[in-house]
Amino acid sequence: MDHSEQQQTHRETEEEIDLYELFFLFRQKIKGIAISLILGGLVVGLFTFFFIAPKYQATSKLYIVSASNDSVVNLTDLQIGASLTADYEQLILSRPVLESVIQSLGLDITTKELKESLEISNPANTRILDITATSTDPALAKDIANEVARLAVEWLPEVMESNTPNIAEDAIQPTQKSSPSYSTNMVMGALLAALGYMAVVFIQFISNDTIRTEEELEHYFGILPLAAIPEDDACNDKLDSWTSNTRGGAREQKRGGRGA
Length: 260
Known about the structure:
This protein is of the alpha+beta class. It has three domains: about 15-50 and about 180-225, no CATH class; about 55-170, Alpha-Beta Plaits; about 230-260. The protein contains ten helices and four strands, in the order H-H-H-E-H-H-H-E-E-H-E-H-H-H. It has helices at about 5-15, 20-30, 30-50, 75-90, 95-105, 110-115, 140-160, 180-205, 215-220, 235-260, and strands at about 55-65, 120, 130-135, 165-170. A four-stranded antiparallel sheet has the order 2-3-1-4. It starts with a helix and ends with a helix.
């Protein structure tokens, strides 16, 4: 192996991360991780409680009937009903319907804002449409869902030249908020805070290139130390005292020489 290959291998060895040492480092920082978890969850929980307005959802239901007037429902009726359901799902959010809802309820919002507050869904294998309205006002959420359903029943059959759908269920005023979830937000905040703290510890760990032990010296440079000088506070104190005494004695000798 030539010199350049040895250097490359040496660099790759230096870039290796000692997962065992990192694990014990995180164990040493377990108190900081726990504190970051608590503070992160607490801060996010307080922010959610004081600064995020709760939202409520109300849902009305439409039943889409097929064009057939026969009392017996056949496969063709089901296929036509499924197709009508998909068409209604798109047309309910059309501009004429939204503008009529805004005018009827006297809302001070745009059609785009109203559209973003509505969700139209079709449960699998059914001809039922769920019209869900979301608002910070529970009464308004109910009124919007019911008004959209009423206008859909009146206006869309004329446009599509189809039978009038039936309102299967009126929306009722919700009593419980749909969002935000305090518990979910607090858990997410706690996890993010802990991960952020651990990321800082990890960056400090990989950025520290100080050789701390004999094993690290052998690992990174492939050489064995001849001797090791232990770090002893008592020895350091004696060395400082000896240095001070030596300097003090030298000063006294100089003064004595001058006096003579």
